[in-house]
Each structure stands twice: as structure tokens, then as C-alpha cells.
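Hi Q.,

Before the meeting this afternoon, I wanted you to have the zinc ion prediction in hand. No need to reply - just skim if you have a minute. The sequence and ligand are here:
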Amino acid sequence: MEIRYATNPRDFKNYDNERVREDFLINNLFEKGNINMVYSHYDRLIVGGAVPISSPLRLEDKETLKTEFFLERREVGFFNISNSKGKITVDGEVYELDHRDCLYVGKGNKNILIESIDSNNPAKIYIVSATAHKNYPTQKKSLQEATHRHLGDDAQSNKRDLYQFIHADGIQSCQLMMGMTFLSENNMWNTMPPHVHDRRMEAYLYFDLEEDEKIMHFMGKPNDTRNIIVSNEQAVLSPPWSIHSGVGTKNYTFIWAMAGENYTFDDMDHVDKNELK
Ligand SMILES: O=C(O)C(=O)C[C@H](O)C(=O)CO
Ligand SMILES: [Zn+2]
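Predicted structure with the ligand bound:
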């Protein structure tokens, strides 16, 4: 597993474009036949992608975690971002994941296998894992079952539908919060005006974007921002001190995931647009 260390915002000021991309962009998550994962030292969040073909892929990395099994001291959220069905087996119990379904698996489950139902049309499973202190029940939720919030409007080009899956009023977890946000057609901006939450880090996976379309993701302290150009199915790590907002060349979808100090989705320090630099 690739390790990414945390950055002091004072040092971040000196980062050039290449260094920003190296430290915060994850561009190799979905590779046929593999599970690829990145271990971030921001709240020890692991971000991964699995594309099983003919044989199941096991969620494991003893080498990095130095535990007997992956979820010995962790919890994990899975999302199927492909149109093709996937299957996750949790200690013998099988869960089928349709397009946009989410599965949460808590601490203590030992054998986690990720499979595609049809190897010619493989599933793409996005994986986010955080450290955990107790077991919460394994739970699956579809988009229709998630908590729906309407945000933004046409005048601000930021009309979007936010769905909360793993959160205080949904699937229970120790610290992991996850959901999906859809930008409406002709709307390009997410999370503008932006916010920070020094209590929690966040990761964004951008997808549902054609090959030539791009997202300009903004990060950094509100008064000292940088942008990362992001392509389809790439993720960005957002430090707790950083804004996380983006604009697309076309509308898009993203999965947000957070871990850290509190479990309060609405704990955000909003930033006035006049403060942005
Ligand atoms: O569209 C949005 O706004 C979001 O999806 C915001 C994220 O959920 C977020 O940043 C939560 O802190
Ligand atoms: Zn946020």
C-alpha cells in the first residue's frame, strides 16, 4: 500500500504543482484485477479501489497494518461506482452491490472478499477505511435509502443532490462518514462557497465524467489556494485545514468521505467568498 504523509500548511505554501499532485491526487485506484490502496496519515484514512475480474480480491495488507486481518482495528465503507453488479462476502455472508449501493463493514470482521458478478463487465468498488474502536453492524444502503439533501441553485451554477449513507442518522460507524453528491445538468460547482473543518479530514472521489472532461479541485488554506486538475475516477485527499471545492468542465458525481474528531456532518467553518485568495 502506498503511504502518504501529512503536510504542515506552512510547508504547503512552497509546493509546486507537481508536489501538490504527488501528495494529494490519487490517480491509480481502479486497475483491472487489483486492489490499489493509499494510506493517508491524515486521520489514518485508507482510500482504495478494487476491480475484480475472474477471481475474488481479498481486502488485506498485513505488511502495512501489522495486524492479523484488515478490520482488526478498522471499519470500511464500499461503494459500487460501476453499472455492473459486484459482490462482497463478509465472513461468509454475501452482499450484492448494484450501481451506487454502499456497504459498511465494521471492526472485527475477518474475511472480506470482493468479486464481480460478470467478469466481462467488472464491478468497480471504491473503498474507504478509518480506524475503529468498536464493532457496528454490517449494513447495506441503496441511493434511494440514503438521506437526501437538495443544495445550491441554478443561479449559482451549483445545484446538486447530496446523499448521506454512513452518518449519524444513517448507517452507524465509529468515525467514518460517507456519501455521494450529484451535480445537476449545467451545474458545475461543488461546495462553493467553501468550508474547512479542522476537526476532520476529507477525501473526494470524482467520477461519472467522460474521458476528456476535467474537474478543477481547489485546496489549501482559504487565503492561499491551489488547484489540482482531476480526471474521471481520481481521488483527492483534503487535509483538515484545507478548503475542498471544485468546478467541472461538465457536471459530475463525487463520493465524499470523512474521518476525525467528531461525527457531526454539519460541523463546518464556512468561508466567505471575499476571503478566498
Ligand atoms: O456538495 C457538497 O457540498 C458536498 O458534497 C460537501 C461535502 O459533503 C463536504 O465537504 C462535507 O463536509
Ligand atoms: Zn467538507
